[in-house]
Write a structure and sequence with these properties.
Blueprint lengths: L1 H11 L7 H8 L4 E5 L5 E4 L1 H7 L3 H4 L4 H5 E2 L12 H8 L3 E9 L5 E13 L3 E10 L19 H15 L5 H12 L6 E7 L5 E9 L5 E3 L5 E2 L10 H6 L5 E4 L10 H13 L3 E8 L4 E9 L11 H35 L10 E7 L10 E7 L5 E8 L4 H20 L4 H15 L5 E12 L2 E9 L5 E3 L5 E3 L4 E2 L13 E5 L4 E5 L11 H14 L5 H12 L8 E7 L15
Helix pairs in contact: 7-8, 7-11, 8-11, 12-13, 14-15
Length: 584
C-alpha cells in the first residue's frame, strides 16, 4: 500500500495545505472526517481519520479518495459505477450508508458507516465533506481479510479454460469428470474444491470435498460429504442461489454467521468451520437444460481472498463442467437402458439334471452396454439340451436387436424340426436375409444328452465361430475344430458338416465369442493358446470360479469387444464332492 501511495504522490504532486479554519472545523467533529475537492481529491482530514485509516496526512492529501480508500467486502477495488459514495459525490446530494469498507494503510480492511454532504465555498469552489464511523475498532486484534489477488493473466486464463474443455469432454464417466475437475482447480486456484450435485429427484448431495495438502496431495474429506437439505426458493445465501442457477457469489466466514435461513445454510456454516476457509467463490454448474449443482472453491492456507474479478473464470470452469456432467449423465442413462435390454435379451439357463452350466456376458468397454454376442441353452422336445453361442456383427442397439432375432429363429427351428444341428443352421442361414436385417453372423449350435456310463454325447455344427474348448478333469485340453463351415449371411449354399464327441465324466466344455481371445496386433493363435493354458490350470476349480477366473485372466486388457461365455461340466469332477465324500 505504501508503495502505491508513493507512486500516486509522484504522479499527482503535493497537495495544497488545508486552511487553518478547515482543519479546526474537522477536528471538532467527533468522528473520522475528510474533505474532497470537485475532482474527488482529499484536501483535508482530521486526526481521528488518520488514526482510523492508518494513513498519515501526507499519505492522504492530494489523492483520489475513491482510488485510495473505497473497497468491496473482500477488499477488491470497486468500479466507480458500483461505488455508492462516488455516485453521491457526482450527484452533489447528501447520502449515507450503514456498511461499506475502506482500505487502511496497514493493508487491512475497515468496515465503516458514512455520511456525505456537499457544500459551496465561494473562494475555493465546490467541496464535499465525508464523515465516517468505524463499525469495529481497528486497534483491536481482529482477523482482517487479506489483500485481493491480481486477476489471472489472460493467456493463462485461456490456457486453463482450453485444458478444462479438453479434459472434461474426453470422458463420459461422472466420477472421472469430477476427479478431473478437482485436479484443474486445486491447488491452482484454491485450497479446497467442493461439488454439490442435484439428483434427478431434486435431492442435493455433497459429492466432493477435496483439500490440497502442502505437498500437493489431494485428500478427500468423506466426513463432509453426503446428503444435503433441500434448496430454499427464497434464500439469498450464496450456495442456495448457485443451486437455483441464479448467480455466482463470493462468500467468507462472516457470510454464514448470520442466523441461518434454511438447513442448507447450517451445513454450509459447518463446511466453513471444518475446512477453515476464509474466502470462497461459489458458481452454478449448469447444463443447456437444467442446473446440475454448484462448484465451491475455497482458500484457507492461501491468505489472499477471492475477488469479483476472479468470478468469471470460476463461472467458465463450472459451465464447462456442467456440459461434461450432462453428457456423462445422458450416456450413463443410455447405458442403463441398454443394460436392462441386454439382460432381458439374454436368457436364464435351464436346469438339467446332473449337468452344471454357467454363463457370463461382458459388454464392450466403450460401447452402449449391448452388442451382438449371445448365448443360449434350452431343453428340446426329445429331452436333449440345445446349446448355442453366436456373434452378430456390431456392438450397439441394432446389433442387439439382430441378435435377438437370430436367437429366437434358431430356437424355433430347433424346437420344431427334429433334425441334425447342421440342418437347423442351414435353415437359419436361408431365412436370415429374408426375415432380419442381420448382414453377417457366426454361431455354434449343438445338442447334448446323456450317453450312459457317466458319459455325455455332444453333436454340433460351427458356422464361422471360434472352436469350443474341451478340458478334462485332469487338465488335458482339446479344441473341437470339426464340424466347421461358413459363417451366416454369405449367400453360399454349401452343405454344413456335423461333428460328434463323447464327453467323459468331469470334463468341462467352454463356448465363447471372439472378444475373449482376439487382441489388436496379435494373431488369433496367441489368444487361443492363452485360453487353453489358463483353462487347464483352472480345471480343478468349481465351475463358477473357473468361469470368472478364465474371463479375468484371458480377456485382453486392450479388448474393445463384448464377450459371451457358456461353460458346462459333466458329473464326476473332483469339485462335485464335498469333504464327506457325498455328491453335491
Amino acid at each position: 500500500m505504501a508503495e502505491s501511495v508513493t507512486g500516486r504522490t509522484a504522479r499527482q504532486g503535493a497537495a495544497p495545505a488545508p486552511s487553518a479554519e478547515l482543519t479546526t472545523a474537522l477536528e471538532a467533529i467527533g468522528a473520522g472526517a475528510y474533505v474532497v475537492d470537485e475532482e474527488g481529491r482529499i484536501i483535508a482530514a482530521n486526526v481521528l481519520a488518520e488514526r482510523l485509516l492508518a494513513w498519515s496526512a501526507e499519505d492522504l492529501l492530494g489523492h483520489d479518495a475513491h482510488e485510495l480508500l473505497h473497497r468491496g467486502p473482500q477488499g477488491q477495488t470497486l468500479p466507480r459505477t458500483q461505488c455508492r459514495m462516488r455516485q453521491s459525490f457526482h450527484d452533489r446530494r447528501p447520502a449515507q450508508a450503514d456498511i461499506d469498507y475502506f482500505a487502511r494503510g496497514d493493508g487491512t480492511l475497515l468496515p465503516i458507516s458514512w455520511m456525505i454532504t456537499p457544500y459551496d465555498v465561494a473562494a475555493d469552489g465546490d467541496r464535499t465533506l465525508i464523515v465516517f464511523h468505524a463499525n469495529e475498532d481497528p486497534l483491536e486484534t481482529v482477523p482482517q481479510p487479506e489483500p485481493a489477488a491480481e486477476p489471472m493473466p489472460e493467456l493463462e486464463r485461456l490456457a486453463l479454460l482450453a485444458e478444462t474443455t479438453t479434459r472434461l469432454t474426453s470422458t463420459l464417466d461422472t466420477e472421472e469428470t469430477l476427479r478431473r475437475l478437482v485436479e484443474l482447480v486445486v491447488p491452482r486456484l484454491a485450497d479446497w474444491a467442493v461439488v454439490d450435485l442435484i439428483s434427478e429427484r431434486d435431492e442435493v448431495w455433497r459429492t466432493v470435498v477435496v483439500h490440497a495438502e502442502e505437498d500437493g496431495t489431494l485428500v478427500h474429506r468423506e466426513d463432509l460429504q453426503g446428503p444435503m437439505p433441500p434448496v430454499p426458493q427464497a434464500s439469498s445465501m450464496p450456495l442456495s442461489r448457485a443451486l437455483r442457477g441464479v448467480a455466482s457469489t463470493l462468500a467468507d466466514q462472516q457470510t454464514y454467521r448470520q442466523p441461518p435461513d434454511a438447513g442448507i445454510a447450517v451445513e454450509q456454516r459447518h463446511l466453513f468451520d471444518a475446512t477453515g476457509m476464509h474466502s470462497a467463490a461459489i458458481a452454478p454448474i449448469r447444463s443447456t437444460r437444467d442446473v446440475l449443482g454448484a462448484l465451491t472453491v475455497g482458500r484457507s492456507e492461501n491468505p489472499v481472498a477471492f475477488t469479483s474479478a476472479e468470478l468469471p473464470l470460476i463461472e467458465d470452469i463450472a459451465r464447462r463442467a456442467g456440459l461434461a456432467l450432462d453428457n456423462a449423465r445422458l450416456y450413463q442413462r443410455q447405458r442403463k437402458v441398454a443394460e436392462t435390454m441386454q439382460n432381458h435379451l439374454l436368457p436364464q439357463m435351464p436346469g438339467v439334471p446332473d449337468l452344471q452350466m454357467t454363463v457370463r456376458y461382458l459388454p464392450a468397454p466403450h460401447a452402449s452396454q449391448v452388442g451382438g454376442d449371445w448365448y443360449d441353452a434350452f431343453r428340446l422336445s426329445d429331452g436333449s439340451t440345445a446349446l448355442a453361442i453366436g456373434d452378430v456383427v456390431g456392438h450397439d442397439l441394432e446389433a442387439a436387436a439382430g441378435m435377438a432375432q437370430v436367437r429366437n429363429m434358431l430356437r424355433a427351428y430347433a424346437w420344431s424340426q427334429q433334425e441334425p444341428p447342421s440342418r437347423i443352421v442351414e435353415r437359419l442361414d436361408e431365412a436370415i436375409h429374408h426375415i432380419t436385417d442381420v448382414s453377417m453372423a457366426t454361431v455354434i449350435f449343438g445338442r447334448i444328452e446323456a450317453a450312459g456310463d457317466g458319459h455325455w454325447q455332444l453333436s454340433w455344427t460351427n458356422a464361422g465361430h471360434p472352436p469350443p474348448l474341451l478340458i478334462s478333469r485332469d487338465g488335458l485340453t482339446q479344441y473341437l475344430t470339426e464340424g466347421h463351415g461358413l459363417l451366416l449371411g454369405t449367400g453360399a449354399r454349401a452343405p454344413r458338416p456335423d461333428a460328434t464327441i463323447s464327453l467323459p465324466p468331469g470334463s468341462t466344455l467352454v463356448l465363447y465369442t471372439d472378444g475373449l481371445v482376439e487382441a489388436r496386433g496379435h494373431i488369433l493363435d496367441v489368444g487361443l493358446n492363452r485360453l487353453r493354458r489358463h483353462a487347464a490350470s483352472l480345471a480343478h476349480r468349481p465351475l463358477g470360479s473357473f468361469t470368472d477366473q478364465l474371463l479375468r485372466r484371458v480377456r485382453p486388457a486392450e479388448n474393445d469387444d463384448d464377450v459371451a461365455l457358456l461353460a458346462l461340466r459333466t458329473p464326476g469332477h473332483a469339485t462335485d464332492w464335498d469333504a464327506s465324500g457325498h455328491g453335491r
